[in-house]
Amino acid sequence: MLKRLLAWLPLIVVMIIVMLWSGWKQLSQQTLAKPLQFSSELYELKPGTSVRGLCRLWQQQHQVTERDCLVLKLHLKQFPHEANLQQGVYRVPSSLTLTDALALFRSGKVAQFSVTLIEGETLAQSWQRIAALPYLEHDVGSVEDLASVIQWPTDWGALAQTGQVVQELEGLFYPDTYFYTANSKASAIWQRAHEVLKTELTRYWQQRHVDLPLQNPYELLIMASIIEKESGLNSERGLVSSVFMNRINTNMRLQTDPTVIYGLTDYTGRITRANLRDPHRYNTYRHHGLPPGPISLVSRTALIAAAQPAQSDYFYFVSRGDGSHVFSQSLEQHNAAVRKYILGQGND
Question: Which of 60, 276, 281, 298 could tie 224 with a disulfide, CB 3.0–4.6 Å?
């Protein structure tokens, strides 16, 4: 009898091991398949976060049990590489299994955030947009500190010298959507926007018309910013540019309202005669030539229009009130358009 039992013993041991292993696998799979509920779409793993710490936290939140954590600990003994979590902020769905959550946190595929700088907005407006961003290291304390990220080629024209750093840095950043991850530095976003601006400006300065009455890339940028503010219609920006080029070529003042507005400190939303008489340096009704610097962020279409203006005999334009403009060759034609579209005095 004993000999027979001993003969069956190896098989019995194997059967017990198989049963225990099967039971363990089932228990492990059940534990790892447990759903976790996330109250926010963003979940932050701070430096030093461990699987054990996460499991304790989820246990406190009644999402897993003490036994689940023990099973997970034993599972990681068998598969230690699965415990290698990477810090960062992750975008998570509202429900995720324990396995999938840990796989995500191992992947390093952290959440991407974005900020859009908008053409036509000023540096001050852009600053407020970036200063309000979450999950960003705000290492630039003020607009004035942005001077540290500017690398302006000396042969591109001297930057504005107005005594106000905000004006002197105006227009030196390209409007676009920029992506970043949690704990990125704000200065890095500004640096990228500045480098893209220089790339775009280089391209269109090289593609400019040979008879363009602009002396350097900075003047091209200034002109593009005026075009940006004067018209939102890409189809007519070339004509708007031609008006300003024609005025420069004949020594006429640009007389463009956006430059007046930019230089005012008390603008109320409506230009007055007193505003037009204000002697500030950006007032192109009072001063010949371009203003000291750009007045906004500029888009690619505005740069193209400044570099490649349409050929025309126009010296004036006035808004129709629908976003488009009427262009005129003479002051008489222009005054008639003003009476019609601004004063509402009919078609004469």
Answer: 298
For residue 218, what pLDDT is reported?
Answer: 98
**pLDDT at residue 112 is higher than 50:** yes
166, 123 in Cβ contact below 8 A? yes
Domain coordinates in residue numbering, the chain: 34-111, 115-312
Half-sphere exposure of 85 (CA within 13 A, CB side): 23
- Integer Cα distance of 267 and 92 in angstroms: 46
pLDDT for the residue 316:
95
Task: Report the alpha-carbon distance of residue 193 to residue 187 in Å, rounded.
Answer: 10
Closest CA to 191 of 145, 244, 249, 233: 145
Whole-Å CA distances, 63 to 40, 60, 99, 102, 211: 15, 8, 14, 15, 72
* Claim: this prediction has a pTM higher than 0.70: yes
Query: CA angle 287-303-113, nearest 5°?
Result: 115
Separation CA 93–CA 106 (nearest Å): 16
At the topology level of CATH, where does 34-111 sit? Dna Ligase; domain 1 (3.30.1490)
Residues 6+ positions from 137 with CB-CB distance below 8 Å: 183, 184, 185, 186
